[in-house]
Amino acid sequence: MKITFRYRLLASYILLIAVPLLVLGALFYRTSLKIITEQAQKNVYEIVKKNNEVMDTKLRIVDQNSMSLFLDKDLFRIFSQLDPANQVELFAADRQVTAVLGKTFSQNQDIYAYQLWTSYFTFGQTLPQGDPVQSDIYDLARQAGGKLVWIPTYDFVSMFNQPYLQDGNLEFRYLFSATRVLDFTYLSNTKLEKMAAGVERPVLAISFKSEVLKSLYEDSIPGSSRYMVLDPQDKVVASSEPGAVAQTYKEAWLDELQQEKSGARRMTLDGKAVIVCFDRSEVTGWMSVVWIPEAGLVSSFVPVIRASITVMAVVMGIVALILAFFIAGKITKPIKRLLSAMRSVGEGDFQTRVDVVSNDEFGILTQRFNRMNDRIHLLVTENYETKLKEKEAEIQALNMQMHPHFLYNTLNVMNWTAIENDQQELSKMLVCLSNMLHYTSRKTWGAVPLSEEMNWMNNYFYIMSIRFEDKFTVEYDMDPRLFEYDVPRLLFQPFVENAILHGFDQTDSGGIIGIRGWINGRTRHYEVADNGSGMSQATVNAILHQKASSVGIKNTIDRIQMTYGGEYGISIFSSPGKGTKVAITLPL
């Protein structure tokens, strides 16, 4: 029985190389993975617990320092005697309060800002917080009385309602804070003095950058690990994924961990086996979670596996090369011929053929390649011709729909003008209409110079201005470079018609239609804007996506996309009472 090439190749390489390497590799991999996984689980868990202990120690120091302020003599005197209505006293008190807070907290490099908030003034370091007493931080401090409250990482812009900072590059964009109400007391001789009942107790706010926790974990856990610090409501305090900070992270496996205080377990996340270690802070109640792929742990054992397999591969490779010498000729020649033919086909030469010189698998493969090449050539030719005809027919059909649509509206306007104006302006209007009909009745509907399109629009605006008297005016702002390029015929007509007939239907005067054009990079931009009544988003969606709405606009969109491609087209921005803006994008 004749042994085919495929069986010879598979038998030699499987027996000589594949089977031994697979068996030994599997044994080494399983053994190393088990040992490393168990040890790594212990190490990572100890790292997580140690990080939590370090974090708790730092936060306890902050708690103790803040408690010392309750008995501060200077703060007691300042807030007991301060007149909130006296600006001079406020600024003098701010300097003194800042000095006391600096003496208490400035040595702690983890603290970013320390302040005292009252309803009438913010003492301490200055941040663009607006009125901080309107924030959730202030409310939580008041609700907790004198107890220290830890606020998980938040977006500074959202917390203090400062939208003008939204696009700024803020170093304090994400902070977490500790806050408490300070009810000062003072021990005078043997008597404990308390602040008067009518004096407002300030709120202490101590803020930390989220990078404090980030540096703590990234410097201590393996590089392939991921970490996350969550509060009991699953809000992310810190994470190896920057976009997750200050967001709510809901996952079923995290819900299981939230029920426990500390531990380590093996899980499958996103289809990968991972080790998960977690521990809860005794100060804040936040849970630190670290998970590391088991596959990444094998990297430290790879040198041992590589050395062992290399020795075996060298020995078996020598034997394999001796056998491969005898079959090399049968492998290289047909493969080279096929590769050369495939390269020619890849460059578009579908006439390439390969001679069939054997009856084995390579001979069959060569025959199939030749048949496939013939079929591809035929399909490409047929598909190209079919698509070309379909596109030409569709563009022609869409263009033909434009004639009755705008002619009906224009003639209707002329009829009303003749009735209302006693035919005094009819001569001028007929001249304009004649120019318009000549422009739109051309046999070809290809692109036209922008100057011709603008001339047509001027005729159209004249007729409409006579019909609607002084209801609207037109303003142009067109980059002169745009006149070097052609545009689809009647590009602006459907949009200015909608502005006049619908946007200004409730307006007697003062309507403005602005037509602008500019070039940005390799793209032309045109804009048709009005200050009319506008429309709802539902109406905009209907115009853009429903065939029954605004035939003229829908056809204009289709003509642009079929002529220039799907990345170009039209966008409509409008809202009731605020006018409408139509943005058109075309390539250079």
Automatic annotation (TrEMBL):
User: Can you say where in the cell this protein is located?
Assistant: Cell membrane
Its Gene Ontology cellular component terms are: plasma membrane
Q: Phosphoprotein as a keyword?
A: yes
Q: Recite the UniProt keywords alphabetically.
A: Cell membrane, Membrane, Phosphoprotein, Transferase, Transmembrane, Transmembrane helix
Stored SUPFAM superfamilies: ATPase domain of HSP90 chaperone/DNA topoisomerase II/histidine kinase, HAMP domain-like
**Record-linked SMART domains:** HAMP (SM00304)
Residues forming the HAMP domain are 329-381
Task: Say yes or no: keyword Transmembrane helix present.
Answer: yes
Q: Which residues cross the membrane?
A: 7-29, 307-328
Q: Name one GO molecular function term.
A: phosphorelay sensor kinase activity
Please give the PROSITE patterns that the UniProt record associates with this protein: HAMP (PS50885)
A UniProt-annotated Pfam family: His_kinase
* Listed InterPro entries: Bact_2-comp_sensor_kinase, HAMP_dom, HATPase_C_sf, Sig_transdc_His_kin_internal
**Topology with respect to the bilayer:** Multi-pass membrane protein
The main location is membrane
CDD domains the UniProt entry points to: HAMP
Cross-referenced PANTHER family:
SENSOR HISTIDINE KINASE YPDA
What's the protein name?
Sensor with HAMP domain protein
Q: Which organism is it from?
A: Paenibacillus borealis
